[in-house]
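Comment on the following before class.
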Amino acid sequence: MSLSSSTLARLDHILASGQREHRLPSVAAGLVRGGELVWSGAVGTVDGREGGRQADADTQYRMGSITKTFVAVAVMRLRDEGLLEVTDRFGTHVPGGTLDDVTIEQLLSHAGGVQAETNSDWWERTPGGDWDALVASGVGTRFRSGRRFHYSNTGYAALGRLLEVVRDRPWFEVVRDELLEPLGMTRTTLRPNGSAAQGLAVHPFADVLLPEPEHDAGAMAPAGQLWTTVDDLARWAAFLGGRVEGLLSAETLAEMVEPHHVVDEPGQAWTGAHGLGWQVWNVAGARLAGHGGSMPGFLAMQRVHLDASGGDGPAGAAGDGVVLFTNTTASPALKHLPGTLLRTLRELEPAPVQPWVAAGSSDVLELAGTWHWGAATETVRFVGEHLVLGTPGTGRGSRFARVGDGLDEWVGLDGYYTGEPLRVLRRADGSVSYLDLATFRFTRTPYDSDADVPGGVDEHGWV
C-alpha cells in the first residue's frame, strides 16, 4: 500500500524534529503495515558532522539487544524440531557451569535469576572472550530461578552457546542460515559491513561528539552484537506481525509473545512484560511486542501491534510496526519517537475495513443463543470460526476453537478458559442437552432438571 503525500510529509517532519530536538547525530526509521515497509526516513549524517555522508534506509546501525529476539526464535525452532524442551535444564545440554539448573524457558524470559552483566570489564566496550572464559569468570545467579524477572545479558550468552552446542556450529551461522537468509535480510551482519554509522556519544552539556569503540563481544555477542538496517529490520517486524514465511509456526510465535513475567518497577503500574525473547507492552489497552536495544554509540527500537485494537489510542491493523535507529549512546528519543511515528500512521492512515459477508453455517444455530450456568445467564454466538461465550476480556468470557470437524468438541482460547475443553452433550435423539465447560454445566433453562446437573436439582424445583 502507499501512504498519502500529506502523511509522508508529516512523518518526515516528526523524524526531522526529533533529530534536532534530541540532538541525534543521525536517525533512521521505518513503518510496516501488511508485512511491507510503507514509509522510511533518515535524518543526519553517519558521523554527526556537517557535510558528512547522509544516513538512509540502507545504513547499518547496531541493533543491540534486538539481537536476542533472533537467538530466541532460533532456540524455539530447536524446541519445535524436538531437539530440546524449554523446561529442560540448561546443564542438560551445556553442562559444567553455574547455570546448570536454570531452565531454557527461564533464560528466554529473563526469569532465571542470572546476573545481568559479566564479572569482567564492561563487555559492550571491550573485546570478549570465549564461552569457557565466561564460565571460568564465575557467572552465576543473583536470585532463585523462577522467582522474578531480572534482565540478563549473560543469560543470552548462555542461549547463544546452547545454539552452538545443539547445532554444532557458531550461533551466528545458525541465525544467518535459518532466519536472515530466508527472510532476505542480507544487510544484517555480525560486524559492520558496507555503509554503517559511527557509534557516537553526544556530550550532555555541549554540542560535541565522542566516538565509541566497537569490538567483537565473543561469547557475549548473542546478547547484542548484530548490525542491521531499516530495510532489513522491517522484514523482522513483518515476521513478528505474522509473516513467519514457514520459519516458525503461528502457534509458537503466539507462545513467544505471551507475557511470561511482568517487568516490575517500584511505584509504577505494570505496563511491560517479557515473553520468550520478546518484550511485550500494554499501551493504554493495546498489546504490542518487539524489543529495544542499546550499545555504546547506538540505540534501537522495534515495536509491532499484535492486534488491530488501539486501546485508548487510534486503531489500525494487526502487524502495524515501527523500527528506529540512532547512533548516540544515550537519549530520551526512544521513549517518544517510535510511538509518535506509529501513532501517526494509525491516526492519518486508518487500516482498510473488510466488509462483513455472511459466511457462516446454519448448523451452528443449535448452539447459538442463551445458556445458563446455574442462575447466571450467558450468550453463545459465532464469530468467524470461533464460538464466543460471553464477552472475551470481561469476566470469564472466552473464544473457543473447534476441535476436529464436528460441533461437539471445542477448546478455550482466552482468559480463564484458555486450553479448557467445552463439550456438547446430546440426548438420544441427537438434540443438544447441555454444554459441559471444564465440568461446569450450561443449560438452556436455569438448572434444567433434565440436563444431569451435578449435585442434582431439588425435587420441588423453583418455588
